[in-house]
Amino acid sequence: MGEAGAGSLEEFARGGLAALEELALRSLKDPRYKKRYFRFGLPKVESGLDLFDCIVAPCVERCAVGQDVPEYCYWIAKGDFDKALQVILSRNPFPGITGHVCTHLCRTRCTRNDYEQPVEIRALKRAAFEFGKRPDNASRVTHHASQAKKVAVIGSGPAGLSCAYFLALNGVEVTVFEARERPGGTVWLIPPFRLPDEVIEADIEFIRSLGVEIRTNSPITEPPERLLGEGFDAVFIAVGLQEDALPPMEGIDPGGPLPQGVYPALEFLRRVREGDPPDLSHTLPSPSTRNAPKVAVIGGGDTAMDAARVAMRLVGKEGEVTIFYRRSRAEMPASPDELEEALEEGVRLEELTSPVRIELEEGRAVALELVRNRLGEPGPDGRRRPVPIPGSEFTVPVDAVILATGLRADLRFLGGSAVEVRDGVIVTDERGRTSVPRVYAGGDVAPGIKSIISAASHGMRAAEAICSDLGVPFSLPPIPRP
């Protein structure tokens, strides 16, 4: 090797060492590379690695919408938030909402787990939302004037709005029917300290700017087949799980009004959001309890976490909020970080306890009887079943009980429809097609994981299926590559 070659090699080595040192310093000092806690195992790619496998990034594979995480992290590292946001919007119409409250399971597969802690992917998405400029929608819509199609979307939660977003991007005319006074679905029940109103509004308005028509206060009360007869070429059902499923328990009449001081979680969160919070401190007449109200939250999902954290803010530092969950902490469906934040705020957790009876006095909840459990054999969902321990019953005084034990869909409008329903959800194939041609369903009302990002993926895949069935070319917006 000549002097020029040797010199070039030496120069290359010096430059590489400097770059490596810079990367090492950034990984130590840059908060975007840090995380406070982490409880997941090492990442694995689910697919086998063939000889010529290109290897999709594990975080991308784990994301329900296949978000191009490495690309938008790259642009943020370069300081180009506009391009980062453009990457996110290619597959995710909710950068603000998911930047605040996504379950961010992508981090469980982050390759940084092999070295220290996962990248704060959700926080980076939020940064792109806050500092990036959204692209001009007029230039992103692909028009197929000769193949103009009209699609009705029933429900304006994440699944419905996602489907509308991707259909509109591909030149399809979309009308969304929303029963309530504002679009967004149960996203609006997430407390504002987790998800500010303006963030929800920004994501929805961006979808509207594509030309999507959203008709609020417009409930659909008849079978979706009727919409097909009114000029729509397809219908997407995305009504979500908008009702509380109350547990069987002594003290609760399934067909009657609930006792005073007992609140279904969605109703409780909705009242707080609408500025009419219940007074949790004045259920009992005893003055001693009014100074230290006790609230019991039954359940172990994110809704229970939200209800507990909101209740904690209502009762103040003198109050006491306890989550009672029938399985152990390891089996809780709630996001680990949501549980951690609830505990940090003073919420208590009683594991392996199931409610048995609500004790009433003059129609008011005054105590909660529970039984302790042990974990038995795994059930159909893979989680170990809670088994009551004989003789372990105990009673705690309460001022209020919040029931966050499950949700269900209101599917009465499907009466007389040929759409197949099984176990409370609409039966679909993997692309959202139902038993009725040109009628599709997705989100919480269809089989699958219940989360905002999963609902967004349902909407995207249904939009692709609708376009395919209607003969409309479908494509995702291109993204800027590094």
What labels would you give this structure?
482 residues, alpha/beta, Fumarate Reductase Iron-sulfur Protein, Chain B, domain 2, FAD/NAD(P)-binding domain, 5-stranded parallel β-sheet, 14 helices, 18 strands, 32% helix, disordered N terminus
Topology, pairings included?
Elements: H1 3-29, H2 58-62, H3 69-77, H4 81-91, H5 95-101, H6 121-131, E1 150-154, H7 158-169, E2 173-177, H8 197-208, E3 213-215, H9 225-228, E4 234-237, E5 243-244, E6 262-264, H10 265-273, H11 287-290, E7 294-298, H12 302-315, E8 320-324, H13 336-344, E9 348-350, E10 353-361, E11 364-378, E12 384-388, E13 394-397, E14 400-403, E15 407-408, E16 421-422, E17 425-426, E18 439-441, H14 452-470
Parallel strand pairs: 1-2, 1-4, 2-3, 4-18, 6-14, 7-8, 7-14, 8-9
Antiparallel strand pairs: 5-15, 10-11, 11-12, 11-13, 16-17
Helix pairs in contact: 3-4, 3-6, 4-6, 5-6, 7-14, 10-12
- Uncertain residue ranges: 1-5, 49-54
Biggest sheet descriptor:
5 strands, parallel
Lateral strand order in the biggest sheet: 3-2-1-4-18
Shape: globular
Helix content: 25-40%
Task: Give a short summary of the structure.
32% of the residues lie in helices and 17% in strands. It is of the alpha/beta class and 482 residues long.
Structural account:
This protein is an alpha/beta fold and 482 residues long. The chain folds into 3 domains: 31-131, Alpha-helical ferredoxin (Fumarate Reductase Iron-sulfur Protein, Chain B, domain 2), CATH 1.10.1060.10; 143-241 and 409-470, FAD/NAD(P)-binding domain (3-Layer(bba) Sandwich), CATH 3.50.50; 243-407, FAD/NAD(P)-binding domain (3-Layer(bba) Sandwich). The chain is 32% helix and 17% strand. The protein has 14 helices and 18 strands. It has helices at residues 3-29, 58-62, 69-77, 81-91, 95-101, 121-131, 158-169, 197-208, 225-228, 265-273, 287-290, 302-315, 336-344, 452-470; strands spanning 150-154, 173-177, 213-215, 234-237, 243-244, 262-264, 294-298, 320-324, 348-350, 353-361, 364-378, 384-388, 394-397, 400-403, 407-408, 421-422, 425-426, 439-441. It has a 5-stranded parallel beta sheet with strand order 3-2-1-4-18. A 5-stranded parallel beta sheet has the order 6-14-7-8-9. α3 (69-77) runs antiparallel to α4 (81-91), α3 crosses α6 (121-131) and α5 packs antiparallel against α6. The longest helix has 27 residues, at 3-29.
